[in-house]
């Protein structure tokens, strides 16, 4: 079943948001000197990367 233009637009918006969160969390992780906080930022980035990847499956 093909996605409508509205659905494709919504997916694009969601994917852009998730990609931005991945980028920001990875940048924050690199800035952290506290190892525990660094690991949390990396874990959050990985979670958002998973969200992005799941959204991408709707386009395939």
From TrEMBL:
This is Spore coat protein. Gene3D superfamilies: 1.20.1260.10. It comes from the Bacteria. Keywords: Capsid protein, Virion.
